[in-house]
Amino acid sequence: MTLDVDAVKAFVTIADLKSFTRAAEALGSTQGAISVKLKRLENQIGQRLLERTPRLVRLSAQGAEFLAPARELLAAHDRAIAGLSAARRRFALGIANHVGGAELPTLLTRLHAHDPALTIEVRLEDSRDLLAGFDRGDIDAAIIRREDDRRDGEVLATDHYGWFATPDFLHRPGEPLRLAASSPSCGVLNIATRALAAAGIPWTEAFLGCASFAVADAVAAGLATSVFSRRLAPAGTIEVSKRFGLPALPPSEMVLLSALSDARSRATLKTLISAFREHHRRPANAASSVPAAAVLGS
């Protein structure tokens, strides 16, 4: 018996994502096409691999037994394909500090599974630095916060920001608000300070760190408040805009920039986009212990 590798890949992807729709998106296919591949595989091995209802997709008993061997088959296939390549491909990916968080391991895992011969170079910097690097051609693709009036790029998701501090952080009306930031020239900081100025709220720089995680540590230690993406606020902090009468902050689009046009690179970008969007469908957790990346420093 010779198994269809594409059909096995469809089965494993559906099992991992527990959704025909998401699996189709991840594979750059349609729900109907992967359903046909799964049915062909089930007919070939004479076993029902997945139980499907209008609200649930789960492994059958036979599917649970077949999943590990199916992964081994795909891994062996990928190794064989990779061995045919004389040189590894390089893919330089820039991710803005305030964008990359819990999804970063997912993105890297999905990219490696898609193309094991891919050498992934990741740059974690401010959006403006990555934008400059992309325009110079130093980066193949960049996921950044939408800057100013620039409208190119594919929108991946919308991020929402808030003011975060520890529950015991004190700010008295009339006193300058103590802020922590990692870059005095960052776009998010400019938006936040303009909002404070419009609201007539004075502020002072209480902490300036060289990296976003240092800012998160300063806020978690109760030294200051700062602006974070609501999905990436440091553990132990709470949203304090209502408590201290701080102004609301506008949402921000996260976009993917890329000038890659060859078929292999487009397939890589599809995998990247699918993994990012799939992760952002999950409920946000403002108390996450993920290293903060959406701070005043991007």
From TrEMBL:
GO MF annotation terms:
DNA binding; DNA-binding transcription factor activity
Query: What's this protein's family per the entry?
Result: Belongs to the LysR transcriptional regulatory family.
Instruction: Explain the purpose of this protein.
Output: NodD regulates the expression of the nodABCFE genes which encode other nodulation proteins. NodD is also a negative regulator of its own expression. Binds flavonoids as inducers.
Which Pfam family, any one of them, does this sequence belong to? HTH_1
Which keywords does this Swiss-Prot/TrEMBL entry list? Answer: DNA-binding, Transcription, Transcription regulation
The record's section on InterPro entries has: LTTR, LysR_HTH_N, LysR_subst-bd, WH-like_DNA-bd_sf, WH_DNA-bd_sf
- Look up the domain of life of the source: Bacteria
Entry-linked Gene3D superfamilies: Periplasmic binding protein-like II, Winged helix-like DNA-binding domain superfamily/Winged helix DNA-binding domain
What organism does the record attribute this protein to? Answer: Bradyrhizobium ivorense
**All copies of domain HTH lysR-type, residue ranges:** 3-60
Tell me yes or no: is Transcription regulation among this UniProt entry's keywords.
yes
* Organism phylogeny: Bacteria, Pseudomonadati, Pseudomonadota, Alphaproteobacteria, Hyphomicrobiales
Q: What is this protein called?
A: Hydrogen peroxide-inducible genes activator
